[in-house]
Design a protein that fits this description.
51% of the residues lie in helices and 23% in strands. With 198 residues, the chain is of the alpha+beta class. A hairpin with a 2-residue loop joins strand 2 and strand 3. The N and C termini lie far apart (111 Å).
Length: 198
């Protein structure tokens, strides 16, 4: 077997020289791949990641745009609803008339007022709530009719705490008490009405 001296490569047979050149070329291409192409692959991967991030940001922005557009479309309806809602609030000047109306509802229903006390105003953001503490006596039908009229007032009056007591037995009427309420039985009712004004 012939030994080839690397220092005398020019003396090698032509096929051996071609083989070494091809092998060297492949090695150079392989080195070029690692030196030039690997960083480019890392950069391409980074660009792909950025593209995914941008797609996600675009989707979030698109969803926000759709949400804002829907909110803007709802704005006139909400403003109209707010306007109707605010019309139900009373002004300071209307408070005496409203209290008189509530008293009138009680008298028309044959109720006896033991307490009718507008409490201290409570500021709740833009609005003010006036608690009206009432203690009254009457039959179940009279009290329920009065409550219905108050709840259906055109102004913002909300029924808060409410309790019914049997005057004769001095016990609170609850769901645990299985006895039906007699329409002739005199009951005492404690309730708080919440009146709202601007």
């Amino acid at each position: 077997m012939m030994k080839y001296d690397v220092k005398k490569m020019y003396e090698w047979p032509f096929l051996a020289q071609v083989f070494i050149m091809v092998l060297s070329a492949l090695f150079i291409v392989y080195l070029g791949y690692f030196i030039d192409l690997i960083p480019m692959r890392v950069q391409i991967h980074s660009f792909d990641q950025q593209q995914e991030d941008l797609k996600q940001q675009f989707k979030v922005s698109l969803d926000q745009t759709v949400s804002i557009t829907n909110s803007i479309e709802l704005l006139p309806k909400l403003q109209e609803l707010l306007s109707l809602w605010e019309q139900r609030f009373i002004s300071t000047a209307e408070l005496p008339t409203l209290l008189d109306t509530i008293l009138k509802y009680g008298q028309e229903n044959g109720l006896k007022f033991n307490l009718f006390d507008p409490g201290t105003e409570v500021k709740q953001g833009k609005y003010t709530m006036i608690p009206l503490h009432i203690n009254m006596s009457g039959t179940y039908d009279q009290i329920s009719s009065f409550m219905s009229e108050v709840a259906n007032m055109p102004k913002m009056v909300i029924v808060g705490n409410f309790s019914l007591l049997n005057e004769n037995m001095d016990e609170e009427l609850t769901a645990a008490n299985p006895e039906p309420i007699n329409s002739d039985l005199t009951l005492t009712s404690d309730l708080t009405l919440e009146i709202y004004r601007l």
